[in-house]
């Protein structure tokens, strides 16, 4: 069995389909299917159960998966070690994140990292749900809730703050807003309740309201709704410098604090590329959140 066989196996195991694996490998699905069939024939074992829903690992496939992932980490570690002799990082790192940090923090941080390492390719995957590291949707993830299971390493990055905010125009025309009880007289902008992936993002209890008048699964869309005078919404303090049309309200009544965490595959934390990018992300996100929050209220 050669390394190319294992790359094909890993792509199918993670993508759970020949077409998704083919896109990762830049090969057509038929070629990927033939490679899988040949690997199974060479081993004399069925590695996948095929169904209309896709390719699922058999018991034999699950046993091979752990060995294949260790081989992958060994190959990548070797490449990183050689590349690291120049002091420059190279290769691809895919970073998964919720859309708030992906839209308003990571662009500045990742641009700075890439300027220092021109051969590095950084990709930001913004999803309004939990990133699946085991399927390699990303190499590392920025989350608001530390996972409790899996072969992963978790590091707290920093705390961040959220407050209620509304547009200046809305506040000039709306009913008085002097305490949280007054929210019953205002439309509230927030998350779609049955699409909240992290319990830390469910703010309705903090607000003392039962439902939102306008909702989205994306922070960027919620921000747009608040900007357009759609109502009052919970907004990240680090977003406010880029939204001068908004004003924080009831800051003495409600202040929410949450945290960002860096989550990585356990083995990847020992690899030069991922270890160094991870550390630069930690410092960069921490500094950028502090910088932007420090601008609020000026």
Automatic annotation (TrEMBL):
DNA-binding among keywords: yes
Any one Gene Ontology molecular-function term assigned to this protein's record: DNA-binding transcription factor activity
Gene Ontology BP terms: DNA-templated transcription
Superkingdom: Bacteria
InterPro entries in the cross-refs: LysR-type_TF_proteobact-type, LysR_HTH_N, LysR_subst-bd, WH-like_DNA-bd_sf, WH_DNA-bd_sf
Domain HTH lysR-type, chain residue ranges per copy: 1-58
Keyword Oxidoreductase attributed: no
Alphabetized UniProt keyword annotations: DNA-binding, Transcription, Transcription regulation
Pfam families: HTH_1, LysR_substrate
PROSITE patterns: HTH_LYSR (PS50931)
Xref: CDD domains: PBP2_LTTR_substrate
Stated family: Belongs to the LysR transcriptional regulatory family.
PANTHER family in the cross-refs: HTH-TYPE TRANSCRIPTIONAL REGULATOR, TRANSCRIPTIONAL REGULATORY PROTEIN
Protein name: HTH-type transcriptional regulator GltR
Species of the source: Aliiroseovarius pelagivivens
Lineage: Bacteria, Pseudomonadati, Pseudomonadota, Alphaproteobacteria, Rhodobacterales
Gene name of the encoded protein: gltR_2
């Amino acid at each position: 069995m050669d390394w190319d066989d294992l790359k094909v196996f890993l792509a199918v195991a993670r993508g759970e389909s020949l077409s998704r694996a083919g896109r990762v490998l830049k090969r057509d699905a038929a070629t990927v299917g033939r490679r899988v069939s040949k690997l199974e024939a060479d081993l004399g074992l069925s590695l996948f159960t095929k169904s209309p829903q896709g390719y699922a690992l058999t018991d034999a496939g699950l046993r091979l998966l752990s060995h294949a992932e260790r081989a992958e980490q060994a190959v990548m570690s070797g490449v990183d070690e050689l590349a690291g002799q120049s002091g420059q990082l190279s290769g691809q790192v895919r970073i998964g994140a919720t859309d708030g940090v992906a839209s308003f923090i990571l662009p500045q941080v990742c641009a700075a990292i890439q300027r220092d390492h021109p051969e590095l390719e950084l990709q930001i995957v913004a999803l309004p749900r939990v990133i699946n590291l085991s399927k390699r949707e990303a190499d590392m993830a920025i989350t608001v809730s530390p996972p409790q299971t899996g072969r992963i390493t978790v590091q707290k990055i920093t705390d961040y703050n959220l407050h209620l905010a509304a547009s200046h125009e809305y506040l000039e025309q709306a009913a008085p807003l002097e305490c949280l009880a007054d929210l019953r007289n205002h439309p509230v902008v927030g998350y779609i309740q049955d699409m909240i992936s992290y319990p830390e993002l469910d703010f309705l209890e903090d607000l003392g309201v039962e439902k939102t008048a306008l909702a989205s699964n994306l922070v960027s869309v919620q921000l747009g709704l608040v900007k357009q005078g759609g109502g009052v919404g919970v907004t990240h303090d680090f977003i406010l410098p880029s939204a001068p049309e908004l004003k924080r309200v009831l800051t003495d009544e409600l202040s929410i604090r949450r945290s960002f965490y860096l989550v990585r595959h356990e083995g990847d934390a020992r690899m030069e590329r991922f270890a160094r990018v991870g550390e630069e992300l930690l410092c960069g996100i921490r500094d950028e959140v502090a910088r932007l929050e420090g601008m609020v209220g000026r």
